[in-house]
Structures are given as C-alpha cells and as structure tokens.
Input
Amino acid sequence: MNEFPKILSANWGKPNSAGIETYLASGGYEAARKALGMEPAKVSQEVLDAGLRGRGGAGFPAGRKWTFMPKDNRPRYLCVNADEGEPGTFKDRDIMRFDPHMLIEGIIIACWAMQANNSYIYIRGEFEEPAKILEKAIQEANQKGFLGGKIFGKDFNLQVWVHRGAGAYICGEETSLIESLEGKRGNPRIRPPFPPQKGVFDQPTTVNNVETIASVPFIIREGIPAYRKFGTEKSPGTKLFSVSGHINKPGVYELPLGYPLMNFINEVAGGMIAGIKLKAVIPGGSSTPVLRAEECQNVNLDYESLAAAGSMLGSGAVTVIGEGTCMVKLLEILTHFYAHESCGQCTPCREGAPWAAQIAKRIHEGKAELNDIDVLSSLGANMMGRTICPLADAAACPIIDFPKKFREEFEAHIRNKGCPQAKPFPVEFK
Amino acid sequence: MTIEFKESAKKELDRMLSRYPSRQAALLPALFLAQREFGWISDEVISYLSQLMELPKARIYGVATFYTMFNKKPVGKYFIQVCRNIACAMMGGDGLLDYLSQKLGIKEGETTPDNKFTLVKVECLGACGEAPMMQINDQYYGNLTKVKVDQILAGLK
Ligand SMILES: Cc1cc2nc3c(=O)[nH]c(=O)nc-3n(C[C@H](O)[C@H](O)[C@H](O)COP(=O)(O)O)c2cc1C
Ligand code: SF4
Ligand code: FES
Output
C-alpha cells in the first residue's frame, strides 16, 4: 500500500496473519530465542539504546522502565496495557487482531529482561474478538513450548493470561489497571509506592502498552542500527498512527517517526473527505492539545516536533477535523466523556469535569454569557496538577485549549444565542 | 428460588480462579460469567457471588456499578450501543442514533416492549476508523449507513 518500512504491520495483509505458522514463517520467535541466550540486563540495555519510547501516551523509554524492577526474590509481573480507551485510538486492536504472536513474543522478551514469570494482558472488555484471538494465540504458543516451563531450554517459566476489563476508561491508567486486575473498582493509587515497588498483588510490576511490547522483537532480532535506521535521532523507529474524522482513508498506518503531518493527511490517508477544508487536528488522542490548521503546516509526527508545536504525540491518534465542525459541540462531547470517566476520588476532577460539560452544553445551546468562557479557562487551570492521576490534566487540556484557540466561535455562540451553524458537523448520516 | 451456576459455569470459574494468586481477582470474570448465565446483575446475583467469591455484598455491588459493561437492569436480547464520541459524532453518529431510535420506536436508554432491543449511547469503542459505528452484543459494526443498518436489523431474529 505504501513504501514505508513495516515492523509492526509486516504480517497484517497475509492470509491467516494471526496464526502461529504465519508468524513462524516470517522469522517469528527467533528474537525470543536470541534474547533468552543473552543476559537479561543486556536485553533491557538494547531496548534502551534502540531508543524505544512507550507508545501508551507518555513516551517513557521502555528499556529504562524495565530496570526499575527490584532484583529481590519476590514474584514480578508484566501487565500489558490493552485498554485502548483514549478517544481516537484504535491501533492496539489491530496488533492483537492481525498479529497477536508479535505481542506474545515481545512479552517473552520483556519478561526475560525483567525476570518476570507472569504476565497479564489487560484488554478492554468491549474487545471480545481480539481477546479471543489472543487466547488462541497464547494456546498455540504454549503448545509450541514458547510459553510455560523451561522456555527454549532455559530455567525460565512464563505464564501469560488475558484479563478482560469491563468498561471504564480510567482502567487504562496504570495504577487503576492494577486495582482492576485485583478485582476492585478502578480507582488510581497514590504514588509512591510506584508499581515496580508495589504493584499488582503487592508485587513488583511494570505496565507497558501493547505497541511498545510488540516493537521489541524487531529490535532484538535485527539490532539497534536496523531500528534506528527509521525515525529521527530522538524519536527512533516506527509507530502506528490511528487516523479518523473527516479523512478519506481512515485507519491504522505504520510510519517512521518524524513523518510530516500534512503529508500523512493529504497523501497517505487520502486527503480530506468530500473536499472539506482542514480546520484542526488533535494529533495524539483526545487528551493532547488541539492544533489549528495553520499550526499543522510544518509539524512532524514525532515526540519533539509535536512538543515544539505545543501538543503531544500521545498515543498517535490523529483526529482530523474539517471546516463546518462546531468546536463548542466537540468540547461538549469531550468534557462529557471525561465527566463520565472520572473515578470520583479527587474533587477537582469529580466536580470540574461535569461543571465544564454543563457550561459547554449551555454555550452550545445559547444559554450562556460571555463570562462563561473565562469560567471554562479558570476551571481548567484549577484542575491541572492537583489530582491523584493525570485524568484531570487530560480533561483540562481541551477545556483550556478549545476556548483559547477558537475564542471567536465560542463568542459567536453567545452573541447568536445558540450554535450559528444549522448542523454541528459537515458530514451527515446517510 | 435461589440461583446457582450450572456445572459448566462452575468449571469455567475454576479455570479463571487458577489464573490469579487471589480469589477476589477473579471477580470481574465471575461477574461476566454471571451476566452471561443470568442476563444481568440483580441483587440475587450479587448475593450469590458474595458467597461464591467470599466477599461482602457491598464489595460486589461497588465493583458491578463501577464498570459500565455490567448491566444493573435487564436489557433486550440485542443490546445496541452507539458510539457518541468525537470521531463517530463527526461522521454522523447522532443521525445513526436517531435512525435506530426511529426504526425501533424507542428512545435512547429504552428497551422495546417485546424485550428484543435495547438502545444506548456509549463512549469511544476504540474503532474510530470505522465511524460511525455501534456494537450489538459482542459484535462491532462500522462504516454504518441507513442501508447497512436496515440489513443488520433484518438479520437479527
Ligand atoms: C486516564 C488515562 C488513561 C490511559 N489509558 C491508556 C490506555 O488505554 N492504554 C495505554 O497503553 N496507556 C494508557 N494510559 C497510560 C498508562 O498509564 C501507562 O503510562 C502506559 O500504559 C505505559 O506504557 P508505555 O510506557 O509502554 O507507554 C492512560 C493514562 C491515563 C492517565
Ligand atoms: S484525577 Fe479523576 S480519575 Fe484520576 S484519580 Fe482523581 S478523580 Fe479519579
Ligand atoms: S469515537 Fe466512535 S469508536 Fe472511537
């Protein structure tokens, strides 16, 4: 489909791409064999030197995270974060549907590096189909002896389980995920202690995103220079981008990091739908700052370039917003989402998000005053940095940014006593 | 009449229990199993699980109400969940909901009198590339149009 390097999506188009035979034919499980012949610390070091950063949103170097695990004799756990709840993000689902063995091989390598004997894949409850595919793949890997006891003849055991969530965005946050895995409400924990000190079942735990772990086999098999050949110096390798919204070819694309955003939109993803002009882009999932069209022009899809533009790479979820979209309505939807998903432990989050949702709704319906726009901004500012987990910060981001970047649109709603547009979105259900 | 899992469900729960170092960690799997066997999470189900999982009823209730996928009231045979989040909304999600509502003769949050369909709105289902989309029971349906919705509903007996 395109001439880009394929690391994560190399097998996606193949017949029975999820089957173990397909994976083995592409050199699958050679990296795990190789890793288990290396010193565990050397494996972490390779992943660190390859420059692999966490793909779940925060971008923390994966190899470094693994070294935080204490070297005492307590049981250690790897939790793979397959909760994928950030609006706009739908890439991990494709890894699990189309190449579950790449994830399992990554788990083997990561667990060897951390000397962890148990791994849970925490998958959002709605993902029934990917969960079934994973269960089958785990069974196949067990049958081949890649999981279980004495893997590759080493004195190393590993059990991998799928654990289904049950509908709660907050469970993607790592300490909430841990609580949920213990059979509790998904209330995030106060840190410290951090998960490597006291995680699931009170034992040392590392939480990594699906895509982070699935990137590991290539690095071990092909080596650091092969991985660093793609991407930029500071953001090496490839990444999956989920693109949705007013775009001709929505879907998941693997690109080298550093690829120009506008080329991605206009060429790779087929350009804007129905000739609609670009209005804005949320480049990294709903909790990353929105960019107006003119702010997108010289931006590249990597950690540094997006940070320089005032946003974030996040989970790589590019939401494309066309002209004719009411930004007040979009804010209403997003604030409603965060209000619904707040676990309720912290006052700024529990009270702030629903309040902002009410104001956004009032503005859209023409029942607000000019002053309400400033209330939104101060509300957002007061939600930042004051809570147990970063959900409140994520919620605050559009509450602050939308009225700032689209002020004239918010004011027009108030002057007009309602949405100035006949319909909030340029595309209708047909 | 008190409720109880069938032998097959009990075996399934035992298999789940073997995956965790603590009994209570299997509570989410147990709730899923109970929902499948009994349809929804009633007070009776909570009492039963409380015994089975050796946990206070309040704990089970607290967990069951935290997660949106556990139904605290009965739902129709076909549980239709329409995504309301940004990508779907931008691609006509409201229209999709209206169309379903009109076809089924019920409003969002309601169940048809014959208990066949329940219609609700949900947050992002993680399939935004197929907007507008919905989930019916375990199945995702994407890139929806009126024609497609007609076909899907006609296929549900
Ligand atoms: C509210 C909230 C939701 C999150 N949801 C997810 C998610 O769905 N998937 C994910 O991988 N990380 C999610 N994260 C980030 C995780 O807490 C964690 O940083 C990540 O799984 C670490 O993996 P990585 O280092 O491989 O990126 C979320 C964080 C927050 C605060
Ligand atoms: S910030 Fe919100 S979601 Fe996070 S712990 Fe506090 S109340 Fe819960
Ligand atoms: S916005 Fe509808 S599936 Fe994500």
User: Anything to note?
Assistant: Residues A 87; B 83, 85-88, 124-128, 131, 133 surround FE2/S2 (inorganic) cluster (ligand 3) (CB under 6 Å). The mean pLDDT of chain B is 97. Residues 7-66 of chain B form a domain with the Arc Repressor Mutant, subunit A fold (CATH 1.10.10). Helices of chain B lie at 7-17, 27-38, 43-53, 57-66, 86-90, 93-104, 146-154.
